[in-house]
Amino acid sequence: MKKEQVMTFLVIGGDAAGMSAASKLKRMNKNATVTVLEMTEDVSYSACGMPYNIADPDRDMDLLVVRTADVFRQKNQINLLTGHRAEKVSPKEKKVFGTTLSGQSFEFAYDKLLIATGARPVMPNIPGIDLDCVLPLKNLSQGRLIKSFISEKKVKKAVIIGMGYIALEMCEAFGKRGVAVSMVKPGETFLPWMQADLSQMIQDELVQNKVALYAGKTVECIESSQIGARVVLDDLTLDADIVLVAAGVVPCSELAEDAGLELGAGGAIAVDRMLKTSDPDIYAAGDCADAYHVVSGEKCWIPLALRANRAGWAVADNICGVKTELKGVAGTSVFKVFDLQVARTGLTVQEANTAGFSPVENMITARSRAHGHPGSTPILVNMVGDKASGRLLGVQMTGTEGVAHRINAAAVALQTSMTVSEFFQSDLAYAPPFGPVWDPLLTAAGQLLKKM
Amino acid sequence: MKKEQVMTFLVIGGDAAGMSAASKLKRMNKNATVTVLEMTEDVSYSACGMPYNIADPDRDMDLLVVRTADVFRQKNQINLLTGHRAEKVSPKEKKVFGTTLSGQSFEFAYDKLLIATGARPVMPNIPGIDLDCVLPLKNLSQGRLIKSFISEKKVKKAVIIGMGYIALEMCEAFGKRGVAVSMVKPGETFLPWMQADLSQMIQDELVQNKVALYAGKTVECIESSQIGARVVLDDLTLDADIVLVAAGVVPCSELAEDAGLELGAGGAIAVDRMLKTSDPDIYAAGDCADAYHVVSGEKCWIPLALRANRAGWAVADNICGVKTELKGVAGTSVFKVFDLQVARTGLTVQEANTAGFSPVENMITARSRAHGHPGSTPILVNMVGDKASGRLLGVQMTGTEGVAHRINAAAVALQTSMTVSEFFQSDLAYAPPFGPVWDPLLTAAGQLLKKM
For the whole model, what pTM was predicted? Predict the structure, then answer.
């Protein structure tokens, strides 16, 4: 397809992937008609920033908006339609049908379609989940709601259902607002996706910050009470002014499924490295689509912001004839739990086993600063390697400093399928305020090699 | 050679490379006689930690000692001889000759010899360089001397000759001790090895912290004065209670040269990837030896602590029959200038030109935290790529946070000869307190790609 060809590009979903694709395609092809259907009123905001914004009552939540709908309309020349819910895709007619918030039906034809419908919070099927004080946190309007709820209802007690990223980040946000937090989840293990010592370090940080943890507890129901709600567990009842549901997310792939598109990992829309679905004129990107894992080579579903942005760009490239294949994801992520930085990339030993590797793991405790340098704190590094191929498979780290950006060195190594031995040879930076002579990652690699 | 064979391993120099080799070899081969000749009284200390220790009058300098001579003698079973200056190596006789500090001659035979004599500060040939208040900072005794000098002489004014790492780090140390600093060097450009915008950011940080910079000024002489010294420049005279000479270092390779060993890059001892010199029974490691550069593939001399430690280990491996080839160095380094973190890895555009590449560079200004997250500060990233091959050649970064460890992602990429395009696909971590969705390194790569 020639760059300047007249074409109609339709996008369902106006968040990271959708708006990245729309903007880039319009930059690459000024003659294209670019229409975005977004069911909410918000586009292009930092969803991951919501917990930190909620933590500060004096910070306007609009600060998280990267670009407003009007800017996209006027400056980027995108036909951005908010309040437009897409309800049906007809690949045969190459049309999308839907209804606006005010109840009007619409239909749009496309030459190329991008489905970027994202993911949505899992709402467990328990009595009381529909109470007014029971809220998830995924989009900006939910963020606004939680923030104003805390202020207006003078919230003092919160129960969080779930112990994932958002749950952990919201502990700090509630804490800063003077809200006492209890966290509940059915599984016995606090964080099953972290090595035990690292998981314990996070648990200690939560307990030190007065978060009450209830792992291995099932929520039977949520009852309305005088102060707001009572969260009833098997053997315990927790009072709450607010209940945050952070029990994970699922991909919004129903629209695609109903249109006959293939689904892939985690029930997300199956896409190839060019983000194409099983229909040659339909792409999918962002949290609703799957991806190749750079370590296992297998399909996976790991909804993360960078991938969504990158995939959006790649869709625009590929539609405009600039072939862009995405190598895949390593699941690199970082989050903050009070003063602790927690990061991971690649596979855990369990994931590596499932993927058919012969994994060996090793945990070390290193120091965040050089010998004799004041202020040093422990850094825990768990590294996983493959006995058969020698490859580095994954790294997890926890510590109060030097974790968040350090993980990226391992992420790059995974991207190029480096062996642990090759990684151990890397020439990493050293200065006393920032780490030991042997970077914690190198010490971890050296120790792991002895086990392999 | 069998691991447990009886052999005599002799090491000249008891710092990072020498003690690493001695300790590891003794661990690998308990029957070996391991003797280390060290001309000073100090072994195994964090030399890079000295500026930070000098900054705090209440911190004992012995905190920088990682392991004492006695521990090496008793626990590691190493015959560690301090105050032993090696003066001649005879490869023909396989012997080393020297004199102790008390004037006694000695000689030692070896089966395998390691020369780990390090580097020494350049002392410019100017009148007054031998005054008592004119001091370099390389070994621990010099560190102790400077520290006690500041306290005892109630130092108020310092002149630093040179603007390298140590000079820059000592600005902060002097500042914390209430000492006013002037820095002088002959070259017109403040930091010729940094891209101009990044160099300016460092210069601004120094000026903001009241450091007076005199680039393009030659020191004609240092005169004794009532308060200590007068540093006489071409058109200016600076008073000083102390003069720190930090005008670079040179490898201590004379002993090797006199023994007929080949010298390599920067006048350092030439070694292969197994750290062998031109004599099959003599190895060299640490700041006295050269190395292969992982980007250019050419020999270079970049004295850094990690390489010294790694090379020491590799020498022990190779002598004990565990073949260990070091891929080489990327020159990855980081240092702190007051509140600023400065890091680099790989080649500058000038170095890349010299090495025969067709380099393109690009400078971006990114933010240290996500859109809408409070406390964000600028991060400058200069990235260099090769137009011909597409390879990533080097990165330089400056900023008040998120620089020190972030550079390692680029260092790993250089280690595996990644292209800028491949690096741009890396799945790096994101969370609002630690950076934007697109990591500054990815933004830099994306922008650089457009130029390539």
Answer: 0.95
